[in-house]
Design a protein that fits this description.
113 residues, mainly alpha, 2 strands, 54% helix, 5% strand, elongated
Length: 113
């Protein structure tokens, strides 16, 4: 009788652990669907109401990430120029001279017209 009682208790605990694992796996799948599309970690995100910065190396890197996400908040899309603030991968921008590229300026120009 005692062995059966303990076996039933272990079954309940195992089911509880399985439910927790399923919940965790759903969270991982959601993260992978959201952040794993490009295969690269995003420095930040504009979610429609706020800017969230996930990582930055230094003040200049933070400035570029904030400028990029602020551009999205203004309604700007990504551009193909890898040196532009609005390029999807923030890696080749000049950190010593942070400024909008011609591609960034063209986006802004289209926005205000």
């Amino acid at each position: 009788t005692e062995l059966n009682r303990r076996g039933a208790e272990l079954d309940r605990l195992a089911e509880s652990l399985n439910a927790l694992a399923r919940s965790h796996n759903e969270g991982v799948e959601t993260f992978n669907d959201t952040m794993g599309r490009t295969g690269e970690f995003e420095k930040g995100l504009f979610d429609g109401s706020r800017i969230v910065i996930y990582e930055f190396e230094d003040e200049d890197d933070l400035t570029i990430a904030l400028a990029h996400e602020f551009g999205h908040a203004l309604g700007l899309a990504h551009v193909d120029d890898p040196t532009a603030i609005m390029h999807p991968r923030l890696a080749r921008q000049d950190r010593n001279d942070i400024r909008l590229s011609p591609a960034d300026l063209a986006l802004l120009d289209r926005l205000i017209r």
